Predict the 3D structure of the following.
Amino acid sequence: MLGLKTDQEVLGELVRTKLPAVAALMDGHGVLWTLVVSRWFICLFVDILPVETVLRIWDCLFNEGSKIIFRVALTLIKQHQAFILEATSFADICEKFKEITKGSFVTECHTFMQKIFSEPGSLPMTTITRLRESCRAKLLVQG
């Protein structure tokens, strides 16, 4: 489970950098990333997004590596940032994160896949690797 927790923390750091308002909302309400994205990461979006979209994500995952998981997550969050920022409570935030995986944005597979390569901006694997190392070290210290 260390790898799963590490990647969730990496996503949190990426959101802190790329979408600071969402990170501030999460921090302000004490919502841990593990509560809202565990299923995304554990099952690689199966039963989260439409099948056609999931299969396209997996194609990219096998071709480009694990950074695709972060691209998908960041795109979902960025595309729905205004909606997420409407949340006023812990429970409301959790519900908003369930809602952002539904609707026409994710069912229009071709458009969604184009967005995952443009919305998050630059996301080199070296950045992911560096963040994984630092987040893993923090988690190991925490026990």
